[in-house]
Amino acid sequence: MASVIDQYPDSDHAFHAHILSAFTQLQLGDIKKAESHLKNAVVHNQNQMTGERSKLPQESRYASTIGDAQFAIHRAREKRAVKNGSGSFSEPDGSDSSAEKNDVTAQNHPNPFNPTTTISFSIPERSHVELVVYDVLGRKVAILASRNFTSGDHSVRFNASALASGIYFYHLKTEHHSLVQQMTLIK
Questions:
Q1: Is residue 91 a part of any domain in this protein?
Q2: Of the candidates 134, 131, 139, which has an alpha carbon nearest to the alpha carbon of residue 185?
Q3: Residues with Cβ < 8 Å from 24, sequence gap 6 or more?
Q4: What's the number of domains the chain is made of?
Q5: Which of 9-13, 16-20, 102-106, 163-167 has the lowest mean pLDDT?
Q6: Are strands 178-185 and 166-173 parallel, antiparallel or unpaired?
Q7: Is residue 128 part of a domain?
Q8: The pTM of the whole model exceeds 0.70
Q9: 115: preceding bond cis by omega (within 30 degrees)
Q10: 154 lies in some domain
């Protein structure tokens, strides 16, 4: 008996069959076959979009479905890496998905916030750290830190009660790294 893909090669049924096969292969633990089915679904979708007359020919009708499948494959790779004890894995483009040991990381919570938030950051080595908040026009609105920190995890509290609601950026700068993140103040 022919598969749906063979019976309806140019239809939406074929696209959905490829997506279903990708998720099925993930359930069976075969990430490579899941990726192959997803690739076929993407190609099929692109061919369908090229053949159709739509206002936005570049836009995928199934972008969210494709995105869900890509995310599921990504999560399956992560789970496999954790299960195997490696803690990291390589993406198909060869990039490493885990944060480098020498990377600076920062995140504020809660975000959005009212009127205070905590900016947590991690630095790989002892360094002078400057943590500065800017508004959307690039004006400096607060200097939260400008001193030496030891390597490891740290946090700084930011009170924005004197500021207007809006989007702000904080810039974390060390001797060898620089990072900018966005945060939203809602009053």
A1: no
A2: 134
A3: none
A4: 2
A5: 9-13
A6: antiparallel
A7: yes
A8: no
A9: yes
A10: yes
